């Protein structure tokens, strides 16, 4: 029974803090006030301040986590609505994502190797550009640590979403297709959530990129890791 | 109130597809996660009109609108790994960010470039 109330409290505070973070983002629109970033920081600070272990928070967090699976399934809906446009631009999306998967694994592995990190870290870091469940599976298969893989996935997701508007402006990637492919290939579902806020079409392309990327990275990672190490 | 009931009903349908996706993954021992299989399955069901779009529409819109919220609990998990990023480990953040930026620019630029070329040919 006590767990029920802890869980309820954790969910209500998470939702409340998320709504607050959205308000802050409306008042001060900036990449650094991305709601997921602000909300995560506030919750971490609260947990540290009141000495609440992560496992206790997750009694409630797990409920929200449970909705992540059906939410990924739900991404088929915008895909279906935008299907005719996506069909016309299937080739540029496919090639962009394939090259992105190659770049993501190769640079991740090589940079970590050059910086002197061991195989456990390299294996956990290599699938960072794909959505959490896939990245965990890939890291596990290679001999990395799935919880560590999740952390790198989160850095790629939040970091990419925060930096995306500046990067697209700077690199002159202006059309919805380039932006959708870029953010979906680099920052998976968190990037897709950001793209969805820009437009449904950009979000749908990001969804396609994210799914394709998950498939390409699953196949390419074992090959490229053994090639580069 | 009617709308909330609708949203819950739609999410239950999406949940069923998620379970089927997981089951397919387990049974066939696939590397693609169950949620992605569920998504592909839903897409096929919508295309073939076996599942009407009105059966999942509001629930799907509700979940997608709040997608960022659903990621927060996992993200807060960073809290257990602060020690990893102490000292030399802090470089890992830079490595992941740099690699992410490169992926974003190169994949985005490539698809934009191919897309533009295709448009030119049509003109």
TrEMBL record, chain A:
Subcellular location, record wording: Cell membrane
Membrane topology qualifier: Multi-pass membrane protein
User: Keywords for this entry?
Assistant: Cell membrane, Hydrolase, Membrane, Transmembrane, Transmembrane helix
- Transmembrane residue ranges: 6-21, 33-51, 63-81, 93-115, 148-168, 204-228
Q: Which domain of life is it from?
A: Bacteria
Q: Which molecular function terms from Gene Ontology are attached? A: hydrolase activity
Query: What is this protein's name?
Result: Murein hydrolase (TIGR00659 family)
Native source species:
Virgibacillus alimentarius
